[in-house]
Specification:
Blueprint (H helix, E strand, L loop, with lengths): L5 E8 L2 H14 L7 E5 L33 E8 L3 H10 L3 E5 L1
Antiparallel strand pairs: 1-3, 1-4, 2-3
Helix pairs in contact: 1-2
């Protein structure tokens, strides 16, 4: 992507499930190239978010919430995209429950 026409949009998510949903929308619904999308822990700790979701919800025995999930902070998703794609990427982030959507 030409750097003259590129912005980086960043958002934080409370769960890995929400971050994955945002990525899925960006790629499948809005046609953003997956190689332009990045996900990482917002802080320095390994994390799957701030609360259980998806596979972190129930243990294998089905009798309660797992206690081994790394719930050590929010996840950050960023995407490098053309200026023409800013609105649809913001929509994908918000639809998935993003917090603190920013661009630079």
């Amino acid at each position: 992507m030409s750097s003259d026409n590129v912005k980086t949009l960043t958002a934080t998510f409370d769960t890995r499930e929400a971050a994955d949903l945002a990525i899925e929308h960006l790629v499948q619904q809005y046609g953003i190239d997956r190689s332009d999308v990045f996900v990482e822990a917002k802080g320095s700790e390994n994390t799957a978010g701030t609360k259980p979701s998806g596979g972190d919800v129930e243990n294998r025995e089905g009798d309660g919430v797992r206690t081994d999930a790394a719930l050590d902070g929010q996840l950050q998703v960023s995407v490098d995209l053309s200026l023409d794609d800013i609105d649809k990427a913001q929509a994908a982030f918000r639809e998935a429950g993003a917090r603190d959507v920013t661009s630079r």
